[in-house]
Design goal:
42% of the residues lie in helices and 11% in strands. It has 5 helices and 4 strands; from the N terminus they run αααααββββ. The longest helix is centred in the middle third of the chain and has 22 residues, at 83-104. It is elongated.
């Protein structure tokens, strides 16, 4: 927001409108404005910037909520529901989240062998790409059974945010009027 010029009257009116509601509904913003006006400095009204990685994670979680209602599903206590009801809900969540994932990322297996295949792990294995389970003794090479192929993102493209907003809001509350 800092790079946008405030030369026009409408730009300044828009900023004043946003500031008014932030001060009315956010005590922290009101204190910031009061302190800034007393000090003669400009107030810090915008939500704090989140680090890029955290911002991307928030956007991903927001997309999974929007497309698949993942947060709704995970926040719901499903212990009182029947297995059939949970399964039906999980199918809807799965379809939406899978669509979102395929839209924004390309995911491939770390290992190409089928799960259950016998594999040999050489001495120079990458611990980020392979976790050894079970009774690991001695030094490589190790022989074992592939229990999970692993996943790696070969493409990850999150949409850029437009304007300034609170990235911690994963989904706004929805009110049906009328």
């Amino acid at each position: 927001m800092k790079d946008r010029p405030l030369d026009s009257l409408f730009s300044r009116l828009g900023l004043a409108f946003v500031c008014f509601f932030r001060v009315v509904f956010d005590a922290r913003a009101a204190r910031s404005v009061r302190d800034a006006l007393e000090d003669g400095a400009s107030p810090k009204l915008m939500p704090p910037r989140t680090p890029a990685a955290e911002s991307a994670a928030m956007r991903l979680l927001s997309i999974l909520q929007r497309e698949g209602r993942l947060v709704d599903f995970l926040q719901q206590d499903v212990t009182s529901f029947s297995d059939a009801d949970v399964g039906a809900a999980a199918r809807v969540v799965h379809d939406g989240c899978r669509k979102a994932l395929h839209t924004h990322a390309t995911i491939e297996p770390v290992r190409l062998e089928a799960e259950g295949a016998r594999v040999t792990i050489e001495a120079a294995y990458d611990a980020d790409r392979l976790r050894l389970l079970g009774d690991v003794k001695g030094s490589p090479p190790y022989a074992g059974v592939l229990r999970h192929r692993g996943w790696q993102a070969v493409r990850f493209a999150m949409p850029e945010t437009v304007g300034v907003h609170d990235e911690t809001v994963l989904a706004p509350a929805e009110v049906e009027v009328g």
